[in-house]
């Protein structure tokens, strides 16, 4: 006696595996990507042999080697524009933390007046960003 087996049902194409792969790629790039704004110019912070972890939150002031300024990745025309931008940020955030990310070759005559102006506007928490490592 010969039995006829039913023909197998055609497999429907599924994209579930593809969706999983795309999801994992999305999560991977979100984890390794930078979430903070970067300066529109190159900034290499100074090297320091001591320091602590950088606190989260607040605003980032970037100072280039030639004295260029940017606040949270947005270029600023000068100290006056910085004062206006900080005043706008201090309204809703009176406890604003300011991270100063100055290039290691930036002169102090460019950096210190900015810190003083920020403190005069009401910024009470100023953090200088450094790169950990042995000082050459």
Can you walk me through this structure?
The chain is α/β, with parallel strands linked by helices and about 140 residues long. The chain has a domain at about 45-130: Nucleotidyltransferase, domain 5, CATH 3.30.420. Helices cover about 30% and strands about 20% of the residues. The chain is built from three helices and seven strands; from the N terminus they run αββββαβαββ. The protein has helices spanning about 15-30, 80-90, 110-120, and strands spanning about 45-50, 60-65, 70, 75, 95-100, 125-130, 130. The strands form two sheets. A five-stranded mixed β-sheet has the order 4-3-2-5-6, with helices on one face. A two-stranded parallel ribbon has the order 1-7. Helix 2 packs parallel to helix 3. The N and C termini lie far apart (about 90 Å). The mean pLDDT is about 85.
CATH architecture of one domain: 2-Layer Sandwich
CATH hierarchy class name of one domain: Alpha Beta
Which band does the percent of strand residues land in?
A: 15-25%
What Rg is obtained from the alpha carbons, in whole angstroms?
26 Å
Q: What spatial order of strands do you see in the largest sheet?
A: 4-3-2-5-6
Report low-confidence residues grouped into runs of 5 or more. Answer: none
How would you state the average pLDDT, rounded?
84
How far is the first residue's CA from the last residue's CA? 90 Å
Helix percent band: 25-40%
- Looking at the structure, the CATH topology of one domain is Nucleotidyltransferase, domain 5
Tally of helical runs:
3
Shape field: elongated
Specify the structural class: alpha/beta
Number of strands: 7
H/E element string? Answer: HEEEEHEHEE
